[in-house]
Amino acid sequence: MSGGFVFSEKPIQIESGEGAYLYGTDGTEYLDFGASYAVASLGHSHPAVTEAIQEQAAKLTYVQASYPVEVRTELYEKLAALAPGDIENVWLCNSGTEANEAAMKFARAATGRSKIVATKRGFHGRTMGALAMTWKDKYKKPFEPLAGGVEFVPYGDEEALAEAVDDETAALFLEPVQGEGGIHPATAEYLERAREVTDDAGAALVFDEIQTGVGRTGNLWACEGVGVEPDILTSAKGIANGLPLGATLVKDWIAENPGDHGSTFSGGPVVCAAANATLDTIVDEDVPGHAAQVGEYLRSELEAATEEYDLPVREVRGEGLMIGIQVKRGANRVLKNLALSEQVLALPAGRTVVRLLPPLTIDESHADQFVDSLAEVLG
Ligand SMILES: Cc1ncc(COP(=O)(O)O)c(C=O)c1O
After folding, report:
1. CB 38 within 8 A of CB 230
2. Does a structural domain hold residue 363?
């Protein structure tokens, strides 16, 4: 049996990719406005990343993380330099869920407490710890019992935060913009309040930037847009432009007592080389600034088309190139029609939101192509 028993596979066979496009085995060109779960942040098969992977694979494919190797040290230093504020310590793993699992363990070890506060509609991954902090029952119920001690609060409710985070709390986990939950950006006041209540309680503030990070929202990290610094920041998805990498970035007070943690594949050289090339390109070419600009254009064109063609769209929301289109009909039907009639790929976020997470390198012509296709499908 194939992976199809877990994934609902689409009737599209992909062979190659370049920039914002994927190409089917039959030669069909697809505009990939989901960047394949937000992974192809610089577009598919970016030449700088491909070259870095090839060079490193020829030199050394893998060495365990207890032996320093230049390419990994370079990534540790780069991430520490790019992390918000004085977050200086880096743990590398293979996925977003593992980055959050580590964050959960580090916070519990450093505080000596077990309670975790997370948010309704939040998504943090599918392994047993990260899953316990994820809101939707659909993802959790068949696998219970999960890690205990997680309390959920409504996202955006400052009062509820203040009540839930107490002197038994190890960590508060938040996405600065909820992704899977429907593209809901937090207000600056909410994130500031989250900082205050965790400071007062001596708990760790964890920002899950797995979807929002590495330029997606128009800043390198979404929390930079509001100037609130977490104690722990988790990243994955687009950080190595297609190779599997997760990172848990932590402040000194957490790193001083993180408990015992490890993983065989932590920081493999090929993955690190891909991440170094990705991050260098993102910084050198001001990809976040570009994402902010094209994102604004795309959102305003979507709103203009909604009005001009009277499209069944309730709301367009988001930041940078993390955009949710709340439709009046089911999102899955819209996505299927976009893929099969227009050769445009995007993602759902719940039943009624079409989620756009395109490569951060798209330009206005790609945005126009998407808007025309959506108008065609919805009109
Ligand atoms: C905010 C957030 N956290 C965690 C994860 C889990 O990441 P992964 O699928 O790499 O385990 C995701 C994936 O969609 C995510 O969006």
Report:
1. no
2. yes
Q: Residue 2: inside a domain, yes or no?
A: no
Residue 309 sits in a domain whose CATH number is 3.90.1150.10
Please give the distance, rounded to the nearest whole angstrom, from the Cα atom of residue 322 to the centre of ligand 1: 14
Residue nearest to atom 7 of ligand 1 (CA): 96
- Centre of ligand 1 from the C-alpha of residue 237, in Å: 7
Surface-to-core class of residue 79, CB atoms within 10 Å of its CB (0-12 exposed, 13-18 middle, 19+ buried) = buried
How far does residue 69's CA lie from ligand 1's centre (Å)? 28
Compute the Cα dihedral for 302, 356, 240, 43 and give only its sign: negative
Domain extent, residue 272, equals 47-284
Decide which of 236, 254, 284 is a domain's last residue: 284
Contact 210 CB / ligand 1 (< 6 Å):
yes
Q: What is the pLDDT of residues 65-86, one digit of tens each?
A: 999 999 999 999 999 999 999 9
Verdict on whether the full-model pTM lies above 0.85: yes
Determine if ligand 1 sits within 6 Å of the CB of residue 206: no
